[in-house]
Here is the input.
Amino acid sequence: MRLLRRFFILNSAFLLLAVLHAEDGYRLWLRYDPIADEQLRAAYAAAITEIVVPEKAPPVVASARDELVTGLRGLLGRDIPVVTKASRDGALVLGTPDDPVLYAAISETDQRAAGMEGYLLRRIADGRGGHRTLLVANRPVGLLHGAFALLRHLQLQRPLADLNLLSAPRIERRLLNHWDNLDRTVERGYAGFSLWEWFYLPEIRSPRYRDYARALASVGLNGTVLTNVNANAQILTRPYLDKVAALAAEFRPWGIRVYLTARFSAPIEIGGLKTADPLDPAVATWWRDKIDEIYQVIPDFGGFVVKANSEGQPGPQDYGRTHADGANLLADALAPHNGLLVWRAFVYSAANQDDRVKQAVTEFAPLDGQFRDNAVIQIKNGPLDFFPREPFSPLFGHMPRTRLALELQITQEYLGHSIQLAYLAPLWKEALDADTFANGPGTTIARIVDGSVKLQHPTVIAGVANTGTDRNWTGHLLAQSNWYAFGRLAWDHTLTSEQIADEWTRLTFGSDTQVVATISRLLLGSRETIVNFSMPLGLHHIMAEGHHYGPGPWVADRPRADWTAVYYHRADATGIGVDRTARGTNALGQYAPEWQQRWGDPQTCPDELLLWFHRLPWDFRMKSGRPLWDELCLRYQQGVDEVRTMQRAWDSLRGRIDDERFTHVQQRLAREEKDARDWRDACLLYFQQFSQRPLPAGVEAPAHPLEHYRSIKLKNVPGHY
Ligand code: GCW
Here is the structure.
C-alpha cells in the first residue's frame, strides 16, 4: 500500500514537472505556476484565506471568482474556499455598491475614480486584529478587472501588506479589430486561421472562445470587432447574426462585447436594393431595420467599424456623397440602441495625385464637426500606413470638433510577420506621446484619444489583432507581448514600454532575474533593429509587393504609383528621399509650426525621419559627420549586427527556460538574421546603382548580385490572399 502511494506521489510529481515543461504558449501570460519562493507563497496563503462573493453573482463576477480560484490554486498550490460571508482573518472580499457596509469603507473620491470599469484593491485591518483584502468596483465588470490585477500582482511577486491599487481605464472602448474573413483566412494574419469557426457555429462552440475572451479581459480589453474591414455583407444576414450571437454569449461573461464591420453596399448585396446612396430614404430604412434586427439577436452589440471608399471598398463617394453622409447614416441607425459607429480615415484615392500621406487630412479635415455624437473617426498612428517608423498622423491635429480614435496594428504586416521579433510598445508610445500642439503644447494623441482634451465620449482605441489558430495564439511566441502590451496601453497609456516588457516577461517566463533582464532587453530593442535593417533613416514602403515580406525597393509599374516603392524613396543619381517640405509636397505643412520648424530643416530633423521629409544628395553630411550614403549603409549593417547580438543573448538563456520555447525563438532569430542580411544586401545593391559609391568599411559585402534578390518571388506567404 505504502509503495503504491509512493508510486502515485512520484508519478504525479513527474506529471507536474512534465506539465511545467510542456510550454507551448497556450496559457499566454495567465500561467499561474506555483510561486517557487516558499516563504512568499506561505505569506500569500496566510493573507488570502477565503474568497467572499455574494451568493447571486452575475456572470462577470462568477468569472472573476472562478479566475481567482484557479489562479490561487495554481500560485499557492491550495484551494481557497469560496464563501458568501467573511468568516476569518485573510478574507478577500469582492463587492459592488450592492454591499453598503463594504462600500462605506471606500471614500467617495475613490468610488468616483474607479469609474465604470475600474476597481480598488486594498488591504485593511478587519477590526478584530486581522486583515482582509477588499476588491471593490462600481460595476461587476470592475471586479473582473480587479481579480486579474490581483492575480497579476501575485504572479509578479509584489508585496500584499500595503496593497492599495486604484485603477480605471483611460479609454472607454478598448477594441481588438480582427481582419478575419468568413472563409477563416486572416488578412495580414500570421498565426494560422481565424479563431471563428463560422461553419460550425452557432451549435458548436470551441472552448477556445472562452479562453480568448478571458485573455482579452485579463489585459483590460472590452470589445472585439470580429470581421475584416474589407467586409463581406454576408455577416449581416440572419444565419450569420445567429452565429455572432453565439460568440457574443461566450464573450459576455468576460465583459467583452462584439462589433462587426459593415459593408457599405450591403443594402444592394443582401438587401435587394438598387442603391446604397446614404441619402436615399429606402437605404436609411434598410439600415435601421437591419440594425434593429441585430440588437434583437445581440442586445449588447457594440456597433460597426467601416472602411469606405478606400482601396476599392464601396462608400458614400460612389454616390457623390461625403464620408460624413455615410457615417451619419449608420450612426443614426445605431443611435437608438446606443451603438457606436467607427469610421476609418485610412483613405487615399486613385483620382487624387497628391502625396498619399496628405490625403486623409485633405478629405477629412473639411468634414470636422459634421459627424454625429456616436460616430468616431479611427486614424492609424502614421499618415501612410503601419510602417516600422512614420511620423504621427497629422489628422489628429485637424479635427477639433470630432471624436477621434487611434488604430494601431498588432499584427506585424511590415515588421516581419510572425517570424521576426518586434515588440511594438515603443512604436505605439511614440504615437501616443506625440504632441500635435493642436490646443497648445501637451495636446498629445493620447490625450486627444482619451477624451481629456475635448471631453468627448465615447473614447476608442483599436488594435489590429495578431491572433489565430496557432497553438500559441500569435505565431511568434514573443509576439504575445504585443497583444498584452496593446491591452495594457489601451487601459493606461501612461505605462512605459519598459514596465510592460518587464511585466509580460515575468508573467510569461517567471522571475529568474537573468531571464527577465535578457528578454526585456531583447524586446525593447527589437523594433529599432527592424527599422535599421529594413527602412532606416525615414525610408518607408520599400517592401516586396503583395505579401509585404522582405525587401522590394525596386517595385515599380503597379496599377497605382503609390503602390510602388520608387514613389516613396525616389532614389536616383542626385539623391534619395521625398521632399515633403514646402518646396516639395508640403505634407509637412499639415503639422503644427513647432514640427514644421524642427522637421523642415534637415539639420534639425532627427535622423529617424530624415528621408521621410527630405530629399538629399548622397554626400549630404549627417549629424554623425558621415556622408548620407555611408550612414545608410552602416544603419543596414547595424541592423544585421543587432540581430546577431539578439541571437547571442537568447542563446545565453539555454537551460534557463524550457527547451520548447527556447528552440521556438532561437529558430526564428536565425531566420531573422538571414532576413536582415537579405534586406541589407538587396537595398544597398539597389541604391548603389544610383549612389555609385563603395560600401564603407564595416559593411559586409553582399552575398549575391542584385538580380538574385530581385528574382526572389515568395509563394504562399501567410496572410496574403
Ligand atoms: O495596411 C494595409 C493593408 C491592407 C489593409 C489596409 C487597411 C484591411 O495592406 O491589407 O486592409 O491597410 O488598413 O484597410
Q: What stands out?
A: The chain has three domains: 25-167, 173-496, 532-577+616-710.
